[in-house]
Amino acid sequence: MIGPMLSEAWYAMRANGLRTFLTMLGMMIGVGAVVLMTAIGQGAQYMVDQSIAAMGSNLFIVLSGSTTSGGVRTGGGAAPTLTMADADALAGLPTISAVAPTQPGSAQVVYGPNNWSTGVTGTLPSYLEVRAWQLTAGYPFTDSDVRSATRVALLGQTVVKNLFADDDPIGKTIRIRQSPFVVVGVLAAKGQNLNGQDQDDTILIPLTTAQRKLFGSQFPGTVRYIMVQATSAQSMPAAQKEMTQLLRQRHRIREGADADFDVRNLTAVANTAAETSRVMTMMLGAIASISLLVGGIGIMNIMLVSVTERTREIGIRVAIGARERDIRMQFLLEAIIISVVGCFIGVLLGAGGAVLVNLFAQMAAVITLSSIVVAFLVAAGVGVFFGFYPANKAARLNPIDALRYQ
Amino acid sequence: MADDPVIHIEHLFKQYETVAGPVPVLKDIGLSIKAAEFIAIMGPSGSGKSTFMNILGCLDVPTSGTYVLNGKDVGQLGKDELARLRNDVIGFVFQGFNLLPRANLLDNVALPLVYCGVEKTERLERANAVLEKVGLGSYGKSRPNQISGGQQQRVAIARALINRPRLILADEPTGNLDTKTSREIMDIFSQLNQDDGITIVVVTHEPDIASYAKRLVHFVDGRVTHDGEVLRQVMVEERS
Fold it and tell me: Which ipTM did the prediction report?
């Protein structure tokens, strides 16, 4: 039964080729828009997810407070209120899995004829774990490097590129503010963070080396900020509370007085960004779906015209023994073919558009199998939904009137 | 079975509901048609013969009365069963041929077989056979608009024949044809009636055409006014 009906549908569609194509075009544009828009949305989401993964998960940053000098307040992180001892105390909390006290600075770096200005961060080996940062070559510095304040450095990709070009940096000696440092490892590329800063333009050195030998400090043993990783996303609120309590206690801050530190949840910012991109994906998809709806209405419109035009044909078919369901199926099949073929081409168009976006626009577009499958199902659904009314109308025609129809 | 009437009708009424109230079209028709009869139905316009043919063809249902077709009480059947009867008991031939313009002659002739689930190869074989029977065996791939009216009507007859019906209903089958072609078409009906024992009911205005039949039923104002031999006198009344 379905075989002859398919060829009937093919004949009918071919007989009105341009009309069929234009109807399909509605579906193509609709489906193409849905596929492309969700691809762009997914791409944005993918980039955000990448940034979050690169930043490290379940992260807090504990900043030292600001100072007030003659009524002028400095920004957060300026007062020397956080110490190594604070960091050790935080590491003892059960909800915390890793702690990396950090002393950042910037310095001019020289290797051979090349020089480059970059951020130099003094920290512990745990920093790599907290920031989920891999090495592409060499080894990280160790706790014993920290204890003895050795002059070793891990270089970010941007620094490697600017200082070494094609050379292998491992084992070479660079100069940071005139002091020689041996390069022991190279950090994997992380790309930009959510603020667009290049995370690879950095050098990591042992915290003690930074404090004692590079930047110096009026307040030995203090750090600018502490990166803290909670054991899980669920334990983050508890961790935040415990850290605040512990530090207030250690810093002897009275009930109601302002704290001289600041605990910030970095993941919350990232989650907001992820949520935003998810909402954007849904909104883009929803807007594109409207064109799918319009395409469906186009199908319904044309099918109604087609039923009217073929009234006499329907009468003939009924007279020679077609049942209502045969007639209904014939027109329904036609609507479904138009929408599914339109959908197929639409998916190709949308995928092609996504490839072009990837090539020429500064955006990622990620096509997922699920978006294609959903588009197909929706298109078939649209065909059935908008094809049913005309098909039913055809099936219900009075054969006597239909045979008399001119 | 063979002696049972193909069609048996008792006290059949049909009225249409209009805004101005019910309009009776058929009034107390009683008629029995045996197998292998050849019947002409005549009558002036508005006498109800078209409505009667629609009811015979299971395209319309009577308001009251019984219609037994091929041993089945049509009034008791559902829509799908009526479709089934139209498909394999009845063959229709229309004044306007009513072929599908897009399909070639073979596909047109084979169309009824699509609705009873016959495989494609068998469909085409049988379509070819009946096309040959009406003398158009070599035209299978042509389209309806490439052949003459008489040839189109032959194709329509072939389509009516393809499911080996007991009954052929022809509504003004020669109305669009010239005299010579009309005779050819009526010869085919006579032949089917005599050789294959198919019951044939023809509605016509023309006495010449009616004279091919063996029995004449005359309708006036929704009633049967004559049922019997093909009488010149009745046909002349028709003209006047």
Answer: 0.92
